Amino acid sequence: MTQTTNSIKSYGVLVPGIVRSRQGGGYEIVAGHRRKLGCELAERTTMPCVVRNLDYDSAVIIMVDSNIQRGNTPVSERAKAYKMKLEDIKRQAGRPSKENAPKISANFRSDDEIGASMGLSGDTVRNYISLTQLVPELQKMVDDMKIALSPAYQLSALKPEEQERP
Known about the structure:
By secondary structure, this protein is mainly α. It has 2 domains: 1-54, Alpha-Beta Complex (Conserved hypothetical protein from pyrococcus furiosus pfu- 392566-001, ParB domain), CATH 3.90.1530; 55-166, Arc Repressor Mutant, subunit A (Orthogonal Bundle).
């Protein structure tokens, strides 16, 4: 956060935030929460923003994508973000029909779509999402790199009571 604040003090906000209008007036930040905090810490009273007309699901997808692009996202946060994005994509109307999907052995799934947009396989996205089934203690161990991803995927298949340490 110190780097963000110092950069804002020196150069201003280089990338505008994304906001959407609230029903009761004002705006809701969709992407740029850290930039806003950096502005506050740099004692700036304004921040450049782009106003977008977004429904809830579209706003969540943009928020998730901007957080994942940060690069230093903990594994458990990335897993939750992929899960949120998957749920929102499934709710959105106007999804491509199966006739337009690639001709592969399995139907092209929403998690495959997420993977393709992030440069990952659908299996990788599904594995990340499975990590949301880990108990908090195990999620923390994965974030702290005390458990590697492959064993964590396997542990996530266990019931929560089976994941608890004796």
